[in-house]
Amino acid sequence: MRIWPGQPQPLGATWDGTGVNFALFSQVASRVELCLFDNPHDRVEAARYDLPERTFNVFHGYFPDVRPGALYGYRVHGPYDPQRGHRCNPHKLLFDPYARAVGRTVQWNDALFGYEVNHPHEDLSLDSRDSAPWAPLAQVVDTAFTWGEDRPLRTPWEKTVIYELHVKGFTRLMPQVPERLRGTYAGLASEAAITHLKRLGVTAVELLPVHFHVDEPFLLKQGRTNYWGYNTLGYFALEPRYCSETDPELRLIEFKSMVRALHAAGIEVILDVVYNHTAEGDERGPTLSFRGIDNSSYYHLVHDNRRKYRDFTGCGNTPWVRHPRVLQLIMDSLRYWVTEMHVDGFRFDLAAALARQSGDVDRMSGFFNVIHQDPVLSQVKLIAEPWDVGEGGYHVGRFPVIWTEWNGRYRDCVRRYWKGDGGTVAELATRLAGSADLYQDDGRRPSASINFITCHDGFSLRDLVSYNTKHNEANGEANRDGSNDNLSWNCGVEGPSDDPEIVELRRRQMRNLLATLLVSQGVPMLLAGDEVGHTSQGNNNCYSQDNYLSWIDWSDREEARGLLQFTQRLIAIRAEQPALSRRHFLQGSGPDGLNDVYWLDSNGKQMSVEDWNSSHVKALGMLLLGHCSQLDHQGACIIGDHLLVLFNAHWDTVLFHLPPAMRSVAGIERLFDTATGDVNVTPYDPREPYPLQGRSVALFRKRIAPEGPQHEFR
Asked: How far is 531 from 453, CA to CA, in rounded Å?
């Protein structure tokens, strides 16, 4: 085998059309061996070669005789001294952190641990068994792909509607998708899947993790897997189990073809990424990659006990993002997915953990600063889950400019309001108007708020209104896992019911929550399956449920058809009405000097201070005037309709008087009423008070001509 010095950059295994350059960073290693395998079933490598050069702590070598398809791993020689933070063990075959493809996944065995399992000194011992038969293998690939006319869609934030989905769960039971493709990237790119997304009206899919991840041994012993995938090992490699293809190069083509197909349909692709921890866990975890390469550089270790790991995620470890090479790994990975895979943005799981430098969350951390300066990443959609489990870890509203955030305060407020909690209307108005209290001070806009009612982590929409407590028994943790995120909806019956009144109440509450979400300023996010009433039977933590609890039920049910039609209409109305997706906050005056929003009581008059402070007021009107509601990108006024949204969280009907701005004998139309689910446009006489039924939302429109008078509230 010919071996040349090669180059220290780029890191990973890079095919240049002639040979392959291998480069691996390790600050503590004394020697790095490249191990080549003939096939994924081999228990021993076919050959080992020392990487011949070391430049700036990068071991590298160029192999002109290696081709795409080659399977490989590394053995790193260096100190094994856990008390000083070093865990090199050349008996352990290591997965390349920069691997572009997975040639073989993990097969669990005690030999994968760097120490002797069950040894009295635990991880201070050293295990000398060879892990090669069970370790994951990387594969060299040719990443060439013909993208054609594919370009970033760059859908404006204010026009974005996000749909959070799991690649497998979305199409696993979708009958119109060819059976071979169900649950795969190709299935998501199928005509049936894309048709559903387009008819629904969403503009972006947010995919639960698609990076190569590892299933924890305790789950496998119980016959379960890490279905959600928040346990990453390879930040450049696709998760193979979502591929219809078996060859790693064809898997890359499958994913890229999916992105291209979604883009052609006008749908952006956002990835949920997990840089806040790795699959290696705490000091008792396996040695699969980072730990054996350079533990003290890759991980945030406890300062006065470097055997231990700082854990801000509840998963055992946290990457040491302050280290230049760790920050480089994250940035190189993000750029790879944008430039090579053409994705449109990222949702960062437990993003607060990435901003911890000396332990505290720092808005001026190197992670934020580098992203803001990066010419590629600063231009894509960046979404933070703005919390972690460390001390002071809740940071909703505190992320820097250019970032958007999952707005947990929006979710909590809207849920409280529709449960009937008193004293919520004041905060509800703030959330409907874009949460200016969280985002305006630092120059951000309503689009900084990713509004959601449900997400993968918690109850589905149907379960939220059907269960008063979680039912996670199937997870094997005695129902101790998952959050208590319901706190009683007073639905009368726990779980499925044949009582028509209870069934109808639940359907109405689902419509209420969806309607509230889609008339709110900010960026709405839907959980896949909510539009057809999918149930996980009360399990609000389906992370390990690769089964019917997680796979969306697409069966042709009357309830599902009705809810789907209602959701489609809500999204269409949002797209048609500029007043529902403004770039600026709903407060004060619009560009033409007129107020753009009024908050009304049931008499059609502006809410009083007493109303805002009352624990008994549960009905509210939001009047959005359709004068120059905002300016387009050329500076011209966008004229829309006057919109009146009426909310009633009371059990009883409220007679709602329409305000003067809506009192015109002709031209007033009701667009929907959640009490019945009716989405037919219906003329309405505004001189008559509207009987807004208990627990319902109604939306009215008054058409105005661009050249006509712009009515103020009087």
From this structure: 12
Give the span between the Cα atoms of 476 and 296, in whole angstroms: 34
Give me the residue label for tokens 């197909």: 261
CA distances 140 to 37, 232, 285, Å, are 11, 19, 27
Q: Which of 45, 311, 385, 531 is catalytic?
A: 385
pLDDT score of 594: 61
Give domain status of residue 455, yes or no.
no
Is 207 part of any domain? Answer: no
What would you report as the CA-atom Rg of the chain, rounded to the nearest whole angstrom? 27
Give the per-residue pLDDT at 361. Answer: 76
Q: Can you tell me whether residue 620 is helix, strand or coil?
A: strand
CATH number of the domain to which 607 belongs? 2.60.40.1180
The domain of 693 spans: 587-702
- Tokens representing residue 359 in the block: 């332990």
Cα distances (Å, whole numbers) of residue 607 to 425, 564, 619, 662, 712: 10, 34, 10, 17, 16
Tell me, yes or no, whether 689 lies in a domain. Answer: yes
Q: How many CA atoms lie within 13 A of 679 on its CB side?
A: 15
Cα–Cα distance measured from residue 80 to residue 88, given in angstroms and rounded to the nearest whole number: 5
Q: How many domains does the chain have?
A: 2
216 catalytic, yes or no? no
Residue 654: CB atoms within 10 Å: 20
Catalytic residue list contains 349:
yes
12 assigned to some structural domain: yes
Three-class SS state of 76: strand
Residues of the chain with pLDDT under 70: 357-359, 363-364, 485-493, 587-594, 627-633, 635-637, 665-666, 705-714
* CATH code for the domain in which residue 275 is found: 2.60.40.10
CA nearest neighbour of 332 among 23, 19, 17, 4: 23
Beta strands of 381-473 (E only): which ranges? 381-384, 404-406, 449-452
The upper half-sphere exposure of residue 521, i.e. CA atoms within 13 Å in the direction of its Cβ, equals 28
Q: Is the peptide bond before 386 cis (omega within 30 degrees of 0)?
A: no
CA distance 701 to 620: 17
Look up residue 183 and give its two tokens: 């649950």
What's the pLDDT at 596? 86
Alpha carbons 400 and 442: distance in angstroms, whole number:
8
- Cα(271)–Cα(211) distance, integer angstroms: 9
Select which of 349, 388, 457, 596 is catalytic. 349
pLDDT at 709: 47
Q: Token digits for 422?
A: 């008193």
Three-state SS for 612? helix
